[in-house]
Fold these 4 entries.
Entry 1:
Amino acid sequence: MLSKEFLKQLHRFHLKMETLSKDFLMGPYRSAFKGRGMEFEEVRPYQYGDDIRTIDWNVTARFHTPFVKEFREERDLTFLLIVDCSSSTVFGHPKTKREILIELASLIAFSAIENHDNIGLILFSDRVETYLPPKKGSRHVLRLIRELVSHQSVARPSNLKKTLHQVGTLFKKKIVCFLLSDFIFPSIQPLLSPLAKKHEMVSICVKDPLEYAFPDWNLMPLYDLETEKYQLIDTSKSSSRATERIEMHRTTMKKLGIDWIEIDTKSAYLNVLHKYFTTKKQRRR
C-alpha cells in the first residue's frame, strides 16, 4: 500500500514532468519520430501559400473555386522504455543516476502519450524486474511513472541478455526502443545486433563525472552496491577502465546504427534531449 505522502510526491512529480514535456519536447519529439504515413482528412478552400500540388481538382471543378486536400499523420507508433534499475544507478551527485534515468523515462513517456503513441516499460537488472505492455492514455502513463518511482533498486548487476531476448520475443513488428542505463556492463553487441536490424533503437547513457575522474589512491577497499561486498580496487586504473568501457559501447552503437546519447548527473539533461530530438528531425529531412 502506497502512503499518502508518496502519492502526493508522485502527483507533484507527474505534473512537473508533464509540464516540461509539453513545454520543451512535444514538437521536436513528434518530428523526430515519424508515423507510418499520411492519410486523407478533409478538403478546404485554397489559401494563399498552400502547395498547389494539394489542390483537389475534382472538388475545384464542381464548385468553381480552388480546394485543397488536407492530410494528417498516421502515427500508431509503439515505444518501449528499457530502464536499468540495478544498484549501480543509485550513485551520483547532485542527483543520482537513477533519479536522472527516472526523469528521462518520464519525459519520453509523456511525449509519447501527448502524441497518441503507445508506450511500454521494462525495468531490468540481471533479469526483467517489471514489464508493462505498451498502451496509450494518461492513466497508463501515470501507472508507468508509479512503477518507475516506486521500484527499489536491486542488489544485482546489470545484464541485458534475458531482457533483450524477451524484447525480441515480445515484439515482432517494428518499435522504437529507448535503452536507459549507466552501461556498467561488458559488450552487448551480439545481443543488440538482431534487435537493431528490426527495431529503431536509442541508447541513453547516464554517468557521474566522478566515475571518470576517480582519485589515484592505488589499492583501496570499496563497497560494491551490486554484489553487496567489499572489493579491493586499484583506483589508479578505475578512471581509464570506465572511459574504455564507455568508448566500447559508443563504438558498438555507431557500428549497429543505434543513436547514442551521453548525459551526466551535473548536466542540463533537458537541453541534451531537446537537442537530440531536433537533430534527429533535421536528419530525417
Entry 2:
Amino acid sequence: MQLQTDQIQVSLAVKTALSNGMVLLVNTEKRRLAVSLKDGSFQVSMMTSAVSGLSEAYLLDSPHALNDLSWHQVIIDCDQDECYASIDGAQTSVIKTVVAGYWAATENRGIYIGGGGGLTGSHDEAMTNFRGCIANLTLNKRDLLSEVNYSAEATSTK
C-alpha cells in the first residue's frame, strides 16, 4: 500500500493481556507514528526528523493499565500542523508537529501491524511483536485488515 498524503487518520480497537508490544507503526521518510503498549499502558508517539536531528513527542500516554482483555478504541488524527489522539474517547492530546510535509510510505518504509518490521529506535523496548487482538483498523478510512487478509490470500499456496 502506497501512502502519500498530508493528513493521516487512524482508528483501531485493541485488546490484550500482555504488557508490551508494537501495535501499529506508520514509518515514513520524515515521520514515524507509533501505537505501542508499554508496561500495560498505551502510548501514541510521533518521531520526526529535521535538520536539527530526531525529535519525539508523546501524543498520548495512558495513565492506567489497559492490558485488561477489554476492547479499547484508539483514534489518531494528524495533519501538517498538529496531531490529536484519544483512547476510549478520553485522555485527548494535541501537539504541534515539528516537520511539515507529507506522510509518504515508500518501499523501504511502510505500515506495520502488530510489530515493527525489524526497525529499531527509541521504541526498542516496545518493538517486540504485539500479541492480542486488533479490529476495525482503518487508515484514512481504508480498512487495512481487509487489505492485509486479501493480500495474504492472494499469496498463499494451496
Entry 3:
Amino acid sequence: MGNGLVKKRIARYGAGKSGGYRALVANRPGGPWFFIRGFAKSEMGNVDPVTLKLCRVTARHLLALSGDALADAARERKLKEVICDSQTQERNDQAAPADES
C-alpha cells in the first residue's frame, strides 16, 4: 500500500478471514508495528483514496520516529504500546504493583 503501510486480514471468530476484519498497520523490517486503522470488511470493502492517503502519511511519520522519540511519545501517552508476546505479558503482570483496595 506504500510508505510501509500494509493491510492485514484478521479472521472473525468462527467465520474465517474472508468475512472478517482488516487492519492497516505500518512496519519496517526489524522495527515496531503500528496499528493505523481497523474495520470490518462488511463496513468498508476497500479503503477510499482519501483515507488511504492519510494512512500513508501517518505511517511515514511514525516509521521515521527514532527510538527516543517513540519512548517520549509513549511516556506522554501520545502512543500506546500493545504487547502481544505471552512471555513479555507474563513479565509485565509479575512486575505490576498489587491492587491496594
Entry 4:
Amino acid sequence: MYHLDKSLSQKKKLRISSVLKNKLIGCLKTIKDEFSEDVNDNFLDPSKYENLQLDENDFDLEDEKPIIVYVAGYCLHIALKKLNWCPLCKDLMSLDRSMEDVDPSFSVIANVDRGGLKYPSEAIIDLVTYNYCVVKKLTSGYFWNIFKEEQRQRMMAIKITNSILDDHEFSYWPDCDNGHAAIDICNRILYSATNCLLNNFCKMKNDTNTKHKNVRKMLTFHD
C-alpha cells in the first residue's frame, strides 16, 4: 500500500507540474533578452503607492512557492545567458542540481525541465518572491484601480519592488570578480519576472472576461 500511495503521489505531482508548466510557458516565452528601459526612471512617481506594504502574511505562499521558484530559475537563466554564462555569477546565484536533499519547492523545475534551468539560490528566490507579492497587490483590490491607469506598468512595478527591497534591507549577493554588479543583475531579473507575472495576470483577466461573456451569451440565448 505504501508503494502504491507513493506512486500515486508522484503521478499527481507530475500532473500538477505539467499543468503549472502549461500555464506558465506562454508567459515565459514572452520574456525577451532586451533590457532597454531604465528601471531608475525619475519620471515615474510611485508616491501614490506609498501605502503598499508587505508583511509576513503576504509571504505565506506555500502553494505558490514551486511556481515562484520556476519563474526565478527561468529569469536566472536569461540573466546568465546575457552575462555569457559567467561561471562566477553562476556560482553566486545558483545551486547544484545534483543535490540529494532538494527542497520540495524545486519540484516544478525538477519534473518539467530537461536540465536547462539552474536551481536559483535563496537570494534569487527571495527577490522574485518580493516581486510576486508586489505584482499580486498591484493587480488586485484597491491598488488595481490606480495601477491599471499606469502607462508603464512594468517599470512602476519594478520601481515599487526595489523601494520595498530597500525598506526591508534586502541582502544582495556579492558582485562577481568579473565586474558584474549584483544590483544590475537584480534589475534584469526583476525585469524578466515582472514581464512574466504581468503577462500571466493579463491572460487570466482575459480568460475571466471571456468566460463571463460566454455566460451572458448563454443566458441571453435561453431567454
